[in-house]
Amino acid sequence: MNLKVESVLISEEELQQRIEELGQQISHDYAGRNLLLLGVLKGAVVFLVDLAKAIDLPLQMDFMAVSSYGASTQSSGVVRILKDLDSAVDGRDILVVEDIIDTGLTLRYILDNLAMRNPASVKVCALLVKERPREDGIKADYVGFRIPNKFVVGYGLDYADLYRNLPYVGILRTE
Ligand code: IMP
Ligand code: MG
Q1: Structural domains of the chain sorted by starting position, each given as residue range(s) with its CATH number in brackets
Q2: What is the pTM of this model?
Q3: Which of 50, 70, 90, 125 ranks highest by number of CB atoms within 10 Å?
């Protein structure tokens, strides 16, 4: 199978401008709180780094890794913790930073898991949300862009662990 980026969906400039706006909104909403950015490895790393720089507040970062699609463009629906948080989160205001919400299964699992750890609050900031039906009604509190239901890569998003370093989000052509 020959894989190529077919077109640019969101340019580097559009990404950076939107992240600046999200950072300002989050800085406003979390002023005086106990903010912990919780990055979901590996896809959210590129976004989290730029988002953190756009937030003008004291904050801490922690990371969690969960199983994702592997070398497939379909969600398996099976979620597993591969790496847990380093820190305790009780009393913290957690902002889960995700690269993309597709089926919502990964996020559902993470939110259920965090709820058992007694945080002060949990919200979600997703760079991308795919326009598709989602049974469970799960949604992000902060959304970068809503995108068509296509497989995308770049800016942290991978196919078979490749393309994460593209500075833009592109649509992958599978042929
Ligand atoms: P969900 O559980 O179906 O919402 O999928 C969430 C995870 O699947 C994301 O954190 C991504 O790692 C991965 N994912 C979903 N859609 C895409 C895509 O279009 N490109 C790359 N990764 C994706
Ligand atoms: Mg992935």
Answers
A1: 13-70+79-149 (3.40.50.2020)
A2: 0.93
A3: 125
pLDDT digits (tens, 9 = 90+) for 50-68: 999 999 999 999 999 998 6
Residue 43 CA to residue 45 CA, distance in Å, equals: 6
Say whether 84 is catalytic: no
**Residue 42: how many CA atoms within 13 Å on its side-chain side?**
15
Q: Is the pLDDT of residue 150 over 60?
A: yes
pLDDT of residue 1: 46
| The dihedral sign for the CA sequence 51, 52, 54, 59 | positive
At 157, the amino acid letter reads: L
The average pLDDT across 121-126 equals: 98
Burial of residue 49 (CB within 10 Å: 0-12, 13-18, 19+) is middle
Pocket test for ligand 1, best of 100, 166, 172, 174 (most atoms within 8 A of CB): 100
